[in-house]
Design goal:
By secondary structure, the chain is α+β, with helices and mostly antiparallel strands. About 40% of the residues lie in helices and about 25% in strands. The strands form two sheets. It has a five-stranded antiparallel beta sheet. The protein has a four-stranded antiparallel beta sheet with strand order 7-1-9-8.
């Protein structure tokens, strides 16, 4: 069992329906993302499970640093795909690309995760230790304002406690990225469940 930590800004990410893309468009999108990752020097693809050659897969992709016109051309300027890309860029989110074997279609949708701050999946034991290390109650679900997370991560005692623990220090870069996310509203929070 795991607990997922992510930024929650209350945005309805289901405001735009998922769009179907073809296998050719998927391959072109992946090639473009790999090329742009090398050019920009930052990873644009975050694999969840499987590969595009398998019957089932899912990955998230950062699209905010990329021109909408280029992405749109790859997806043949399809209205539904453009709506997903536009919503992702407008709200500062990633897109999620997935294929489920029982459906067989490749779908893109707006992801939960913000462009610059991925979610963090942590095994329950480590998640409770991480929460305690942050000075929070070890509850399986909850939330704190991002401003509070920033304050806690800059507290020398908390930072040292997390940084000196070999099991918890691996999560610090992701937590810091979430705390530093700039494209989120002031009322955004770190949520876990």
């Amino acid at each position: 069992m795991t607990i997922t930590f992510r930024i929650d800004d209350g945005h309805n990410f289901h405001a735009v329906r998922p769009a179907e893309i073809s296998p050719r468009q998927l391959a072109a999108l992946c090639d473009f993302l790999r090329t742009q990752s090398e050019r920009l020097g930052l990873p644009l693809i975050d694999h969840e499970w499987g590969t595009i050659d398998e019957p089932e897969f899912a990955f998230e992709a950062r699209v905010c640093p990329l021109p909408l016109a280029s992405l749109s051309a790859i997806l043949d300027h399809a209205d539904a795909a453009i709506a997903v890309l536009d919503e992702a860029q407008f709200t500062g989110r990633r897109i999620r690309v997935r294929r489920e074997e029982n459906i067989g279609l490749v779908m893109i949708e707006v992801a939960w995760n913000h462009d610059s701050a991925p979610s963090l999946n942590v095994a329950n034991g480590n998640a409770y230790a991480l929460l305690e290390g942050l000075g929070l109650d070890a509850e399986s679900c909850g939330e704190i304002p991002l401003a509070d997370l920033r304050r806690r991560l800059t507290d020398p005692v908390i930072h040292r406690r997390l940084g000196n623990d070999p099991h918890l220090s691996q999560y610090l870069p992701s937590l810091v990225a979430m705390a530093r996310a700039t494209s989120v509203p002031v009322e955004a929070c770190l949520a876990w469940a």
